[in-house]
Structures
1.
Amino acid sequence: MKLVKLYGAILLFSGSFSLFGQAASKDSFAIYFDHSDYLKALKYTDRQYSKYEKTDDIPRKGRILIRQSEVYQKLGDTQKAMEVIYKGLKMARDADDLPTQAIILQQIGKLLINRLEFRMAGKRFHEALSIARRIRDKNLEADCIQSLFALHHGTESDSMAYYLKKTNALLKAKKTDFAYYTAHKNSLAYETIRGDTLSAERYADSSILYARKLNSAHLLSLALSNRAAFFYFRKDFQNAKRYYDEMFRLRPGDTVSTIIGDYYYTYSGILANLGDYKQAYAFAEKSIDLQEDTFGEEVNSAVRDIEERYAVQRENQKRDRERLVYLIVIAVFFISLILFYFFYQNNKLKQKNKLVLIERETQQKLLSVTLDAREVERKEIAAVLHDNISALLSSAGLQLMAFSSVQANTSEEILKTRNILKEAHDKVRDLSHELVPTLLSKFGLAYALEDICEKYSTPHLQFQYSDNGKIERYPEDFETRIYFITSELLNNVLKHSKAALAKLDLNAEDGLNVSIEDDGQGFDTSKPDGFGLTQIKARIASMHGNVKISSKLGTGTTITIWVPFP
């Protein structure tokens, strides 16, 4: 979690120089600095130093120079920050002012760490600690130990845990919100290095809590950026954006510092991952405008001409911006190619799915037409059986009966013939009723389905029928279709379910609902449907209804059908 470590390091140094001065009230500089208005803060320190420059107030002048150094560091001008702070160190040493020397040595160490010069930074911190112990300044000593923890955190050395324990003990003994904030911020940095993300996130949340109590926009914005970093690396870009948005609202005047440039760059990555490429590009441009090389070479002993250095910096910045813009353009070009490829593939898939859908609809319509034709044929056959063949058999039986009545003795062959005719008549009648049930045509759907449940019931399988009492008579075609669909499903229960109980329920509310439930062995619904189920689904689809099948092996089956009223 590289980004989290980076923000942790920034947070460790931000505001730490003021640990020993928490009792002081805020002046104009603190307000400007806290609201990230660094240009106004710099002008204020210039006026303050001019006011006290010719006095012997070394501590005051030292604090002013430390403040100037902090501002130059925020503006990314590390060279100027070093010039100012070394000026203060020389002044304190010339005056033999040990407390001011210690405070300035700490600031030098922090600047050196920002330049990744850890060995030199360690020397400066130990010099400051030695002075603090010599003059017995406990607050200054605590501040030095805090700085040493920050140093060992930056290098991830084995001494990090030792200094964490020492500095947090000193901080918690103060029992102030600022001390608790700093202690939790230290623990956040330590747990991040250890890789304990869960603990680190808890400390990130508690740091935000104490920063809010302190009512410090500067400290709160740093704590929010740390919390956002965890979301960023979890790829939770929506929450990362939420924390960054709050942080930017806290820093409305900060448009020139290096750290805000880093935030803009990360924010552009968040926006890009959320698909807002226009705003991502805009923030990337802002970041480029603010970025400068804060990890340059070691400070030269001879200070170059300021104007020349600024000109070189501007030229380098321009070149870096052009290079980054070029890279962004290339990245956008490749992203566009990728998006075009996916768009093309998506269109192909849509066309393919459309063809499959058309083919499926055609098959359903064809199957529906076939089933309709079969239904018409069934009715015609039933009519022929009932009206013609059944009538002929009845007439033949009557003729034979009339012939037998005039004979003195009825032969055995005539009796057999009469029985055969009766049996044929009964079978033709039964077949006619199966093709078009009499109960259905005379009494309607509810009576016909209740009759099926009674006929299908056996000692091993009980069919129960129920309805909500609102089943009316519907058009013949509608009732016939629902009847044969339901009877087919009940027949499947009888043949395949191995159930002991099956329930059929009819409900007429916003359409006709048919529910068939059994406690049988069930089946795997992920497998392709059989021909019977395919026919049933096609028939229901042609009626603009739907079928839902719920079943698992060993848990029974529930089939629910809904069709709109005709």
2.
Amino acid sequence: MPDRGLSASRPLRLATPAQVAAIAVAWAAALAAFGWFAPGFAVDSAVWVAGGLMLALITMTAVPLRLMAVVALVVAQFAGGLVTAPRMLPHLILTGVAGMQAWLAVRLLERFGARRPRFDRLADVGWLFVAGCAIAGGVGGIAAAVVERFALGDPFLHGWRDWWLPQATGMLVVTPLIVRMAHEPEWHAVRIRRTAEAILLGASLLAASTYIFQAVSPKVPLSVGLLPFLVWAALRFGVAGISAASLLTWMVASYAAFLHAGPFIALGATLPERLAWTHLYVAVTGGLVLAVSAAIAERQAVSARLELSVEELRRAYLRVQAIIASAPDMIGAVDNAFRISAFNPAWSAAFEHLCGRPPSIGLDMRALLGELGTPWALAALDGWTHALAGERLSARRGPEVLGQPREMLVEFSPIRDDDGRMLGAVQILRDVTDERRRQEAEAQARRLESVGQLAGGIAHDFNNIITGILAYASLLEQSLDAGDERVADVREIERAAGRAAELTGQLLAYARRQLVEPRVLDPNAQVEEAERLLRRLVGEALTFRVDLAPGIWPVRIDPASLEQVLVNLAINARDAMPGGGTLRMTTANVSLVADDLPQPASGPGDYVRIDVSDTGHGIASDHIGHVFEPFFTTKDVGKGTGLGLASVFGILQQFGGAIAVESVVGDGTTFHVYLPRVRAA
């Protein structure tokens, strides 16, 4: 398969010192064997591949090891070429020139082109031709021509031509082949179909090139017949494929020139001339197809990155859509023309409830809201208009605007791009009913706490005064004779002081200043124990039912305090049903989350709930928020102190519990008592 363009994201594989040494030894052995079996041909061709091989290995070698790589390859080139070299000193110098040429090519490529070229971009191939073939190869050709002129007596131009053309062709053919084969993982995986296609291509190219360069009459245009095979290699196997095909063509054409065959014999009478035309043919055809292949690979890389970017954008869009869809807030947006552009399910449900129809993308909101004309529609129209004008608005909309028993925080904001251009506006509606209720409950709890501290201080001082009154009344009673009529007056003083002491006790209970002895107990057993007392308190005119759930969790509380809570709630229920009714007391295990917590519960978790319900006249909604305040009562004057529920609130708060109330006027009231569960040690 061709390079799909994703290779730029993978680092270039670097050659290790062991690999460089192994390649150098193999190269020396190959040169020696080649020179032994084809000495005449080897004289002219021994260094053709060297320039491309050295350039590829130096490119793939880490900077600190490059000098070692150059020396190893120069030594290998020298040792392998001794079989065919006519004179040792010129051969040594020319081998060094090849190493210098490769070093210069790498420096130029990295200075002006890519840091480590992969030759899968048109720019890499272009810089390979300019920096490697033209400049480094030209400089190497000059050096080699000078050596051959003085050492072998060859003409300067012939020496330069015979060096530069094969070296430049070697760089164009061999360097991309080695780099791409080392870098592309497809070349290291054995795949049946890919291998079969590669074998078919190689066999077809070998047969066609053999026919064109050796078995036909010498006609230059016939050499164009190899282009389809080169294009096949480029399209199916990428840069490495075209490089390998060009190398195979080069070998066959060069051997044909050595045998005095092929289409170029009419252009050159001598072997160097025929080889020069062969190098030029391979460099032009292979180089052009290589450039096309690199351009295709680069285009594929751009397309792949674009596809990846589009896919990432699609995934990001889906993530944003999922986040918006899962948001509890109601989110809707319009474009600059006031048409709906986006919304989440919560906003869609609210829109359908208020407008009587589901929303749709492209719906004209201005026309719809103007047509409805309701208070909330006009308010929304005003908010959208200001947001599209670049303003941010935030307001609370109550039931009188929304037409439903909820309170909403409505926000309108403009939508802008990174350059500040207006794209539309967004509306966010947040249901703040429960939040407002929690805030009110927290404020109520803080207010009751403050009142409790004040009441506790007053009750403590007042209790000291009552203690003195009772003590002096007792002394006065003891100083009077049994038949003295003033004894009755003293006893009235004592009874009044006793009632005052009971009031201070309730105040101290509310302020959590009474001495208590909490212990772990069974709430069901405590309710059963208090049931007889409660039945006497409520009287026979009421129906008293107790429903205790099995398996109730244990709680930690002072038994007398829990009994006082039950007594106060039972008395309140009795007073709410002067004409008779039903008082019901139940228990249950419950688990509360943060949103379900009544004030002043200690936190989310497991609780035992004791419900005390009546079928009385109920409590008005405007009184619900005040029932736990000290001295607040709905009873007639003289029939209540307003401390019963306040003391219940204080007791439960002292033990980490809480209390909540539900009531419907004319339908009764239910108080929910919550006590935190105690787990076994």
